[in-house]
Structures are given as C-alpha cells and as structure tokens.
Amino acid sequence: MKKEWNEFIAILNREVVPALGCTEPITVSLAAAKAAEELGVKPDRILVQVSGNLLKNGMGVGVPGTGMAGLGIAAAVGALGGKSSLALEVLRDLTDDVVAEAKQLLTAGKVSVELADTDELLFAQASVFSDDNVATCTIQRQHTFITEVTANNEIKFTQPLDDEENAAGSWPLSMAKIHDFAMNVPFDKINFILEAARLNEAIANEGLEHEFGLKVGRSMDQDIALGLRSDDITSFATRLAAAASDARMDGIMQPVMSNSGSGNQGITATIPVLAFARRLEKTEEEMARALIMSHLTAIHLKHHLGRLSALCGAILAATGSGCGIVMLLGGSFEDIERTIKNMVGSVSGMICDGAKTSCALKVASCVEAAISSALLAMKGVSVPGSDGIVDDDIELCIHNLGRLGTAGMAETDKIILDIMVNK
User: Fold this and answer.
1) How far is residue 264 from each of residues 79, 85, 226, 359, measured CA to CA in Å?
2) Which residue from 155, 117, 149, 123 is spatially nearest to 136, judged by alpha carbons?
3) DSSP state of 254
4) Cα(281)–Cα(279) distance, integer angstroms
5) Alpha carbons 363 and 374: distance in angstroms, whole number
6) Of 224, 236, 250, 303, whose Cβ has the fewest other Cβ atoms within 10 Å?
7) How far apart are CA 120 and CA 114, in angstroms?
8) How far is it, in rounded angstroms, from Cα 125 to Cα 338?
9) In this structure, are residues 230 and 224 in contact, taking their beta carbons and an 8 Å threshold?
10) Cα angle at 402 between 396 and 405, to 5 degrees?
11) What is the pLDDT along the chain (423 residues), one digit of tens a residue?
12) DSSP state of 351
C-alpha cells in the first residue's frame, strides 16, 4: 500500500467523526463541560465568549435533548451534564433533570453569551463560576481543539495553535490522488466509512417519519404521493438528504457522521451517494469507494475554505457527493473534474447565514445541483475554464472557490452577522 494512503486514512479518521447536534453550539457545550469538570462542582454562573462566526452558527439551531435553540442553553447543559471525553457527542448522556436545571439557570439570568474580541473564526471560551472559584476552557480553530484550561487563573492545560502556513504547505491531498486512493486502496482499509452511511441513513429515516424543522424531506415524500414529484433517483437522494438535515437542525437526540466539523456536510457528502448506490444496486465495496471519493473531496475543498466562512459548506459536501455519484455511474477522473467545474460554475455563491432549520433547503438545492453537475459531466459537458471563477486546472479551480469564500466574502460575513444580531 502506498505510504501516503496511511495519511489519507488518518485524515478521514480525524475529519469524519460522529457528532450529536450542530457542531457550533456543541463546541460551546464542550468548552463548558471541560471547564465545569475542572471546577469540580456545579457552577452557579456561566459566561461564554465566542467569535462572530460561531455566534452566527449557534443562534437559531436546536440543541439536542433540550427543545431549545441557542448558545445559552448549549452552555448550560454542557456545564451541568456534559462529558468532555465524548468530544462532539458531549451531550449524549443528558437527563431530563439536567435539562430542567439548565433551563432554571437560564431563566435566572445566570448564563451570559458575549461576542469575543478575537480574529479567530472559530473561538469559544466558557468560564464557569461557583462562589469565588472560576474555571475556563478555550477552544479555537477546530470544534474540539482545546487550547487552554485554567482554574482560578492558574493554567492547568495548554497547547499551541498549529502553524497554519506550515500545515498548508504540507497538505497531501489533490483530486488526482483522492481518485487514485478511492479506486485502488484495499477495501478492508476503508470499509469503516460504511458507518457514515448507517448513521446518516438512520437520521434521514427519522426525518421522513417525523415532523422536524421545515419538513423539507418529508414534504417531498408527500409531493410524490400527490403526483407532484416523481420517485426517481434524484428525488430519492434529495429528499433523504433534506430529511436528515431537517432532523439534525431541529435538535434530534441522535448522532450523524460529520465531515470537517459539520454534521450537515457529513449528511450531504454521504446521503446522495448512498441513495444512488441503493437504487443502482451497487455492492458495499462500490458504495464505500464512492463515499471515500465524496468525503475526501469535501475535506479537500474545505481545507481551502476554513472551518467557518460566509460560504455555505453544503456546496463543498455536495460537490464531493457529485464526484462519488460519478464513480458509481462508472465515470472517469475527467468526469469528476467536470463535475467540480459544473458545481463551481453554478452554486458557488450560496451564503452561510447561520445554522438553522432552513439549512435543509440549502442541502436540497446543493444535492440537486450536484446530481445535475454529475449527469452533465458524464455526457462530457462542463463549464469552460474561461467562465467566471472556473479554471481548466482543477486544483486552481478549487483554490479560486476557497479564495471567494475567505478573502472575497469577508465583508459579506460581517454584514450577515450584523443583520442577524440586530433583528
């Protein structure tokens, strides 16, 4: 086996992990849980300071097990009943008593959420108090990357932020390498990715069976019954993905397999591929290889964009699923390149205005665009490199998308946040 393939597997194991709830409020829960564990007693007051992007993604999304939305309740249940050892599943063992106690703390005005003075896009610092004692946990850049824990101003744990410039210089992935890996790596080295299909299909089925969020996926099912939509493979993939997002955004107490720190991205990189594999009657190995293609592509694109931005991450994950679908259809690497160009040339401008129930609509739109992009690509059709931000060089095309979502939309990000917090 190629030496670099071990690194690809390590990236997958790091970036494709189970997550319970939207990862921005869960980051706050994790910070609060770790701080409370350091404090050693139940806190009677909580202060949370977060970056603008994290605030944006935590304002309107449901927190699992609470029936509420927002960073305040996320901090309270994290501090009172979270387990930091569970990482993105920190709230897995919540009880009704903990939730009730957390809501009382909120009602009493003992939980404060403030905007932090930081240049970091992903930043959460939770301070928990009991009498004259205080403990603090700080998370930065990645949803589970704890950089400091203190107790009564004494540092108990610290680790430096990675040197991002050096990390970027050693990034091992490219589309050609991802394709070679997905096609040729031994199946027993990647069959773990099938757990993503199991977890995310389970939450999709919950979204179809019950009324969550805007009921985007469930509504599509009803439309099929009324003869307003056909039950074709595109509709199947779209409604499954939307239903999973419906359930997750509404705070279902059930984990999904995330991608690059996002449950919705994990859903969007997984479900369309699974849907095509099911309807095309593909083997588990064929589905696994397509899922690897999808998830690694999403990770590669996300690397150029950063954890949080003004660009909707569903675009990137759907681009990955489009590439996985091409594999299932027997397409070539050139077809995969065409799929990416078609996606960059179509939905690349979709904004991220926070995590919320309407994310299911964006997931549905991106999945439909990805399938159209893949089917066009299979016919040899792609947006030419002379158009817009698309480039004939696929890696430069991906770089352009990342540049749009970071430097190009920095001011957009500020305006989105200003609109949201001043409603």
Assistant:
1) 25, 23, 28, 8
2) 149
3) S
4) 5
5) 16
6) 224
7) 15
8) 42
9) yes
10) 145
11) 898 999 999 999 999 999 998 999 999 999 999 999 999 999 999 999 999 989 998 888 999 999 999 999 999 999 999 999 999 999 999 999 999 999 999 999 999 999 999 989 899 999 999 999 999 999 999 999 999 999 998 999 999 987 444 444 489 999 999 999 999 999 999 999 999 999 999 999 999 999 999 999 999 999 999 999 999 999 999 999 999 999 999 999 999 999 999 999 999 999 999 999 999 999 999 999 999 999 999 999 999 988 788 899 999 999 999 999 999 999 999 999 999 999 999 999 899 998 899 999 999 999 999 999 999 999 999 999 999 999 999 999 999 999 999 999 989 989 998 998 888
12) B
How many Cα atoms occupy the beta-carbon half-sphere of 413 within 13 Å? Answer: 20
DSSP string of 116-178? ---S-SSEEEEEEEETTEEEEEEEESSTT-EEEEEETTEEEEE-PPP-HHHHHHT----HHHH
Helix 359-378 crosses helix 216-225 at what angle (to 10 degrees)? 60
CA angle in degrees (0–180, nearest 5) for 153-154-157: 120
Please state whether 110 falls in left (phi above 0), alpha (psi between -120 and 50) or beta.
alpha
63 forms bridges with which residues in the sheet?
68
The rounded distance, in Å, linking the Cα atoms of 400 and 136 is: 39
Contact 121, 53 (CB under 8 A): yes
End-to-end CA distance of the chain: 55
- Residue whose token pair is 């430096």: 160
What is the pTM (predicted TM-score) of this model? 0.93
- Cα distance between residue 316 and residue 196, in whole Å: 17
DSSP assignment letter at 110: -
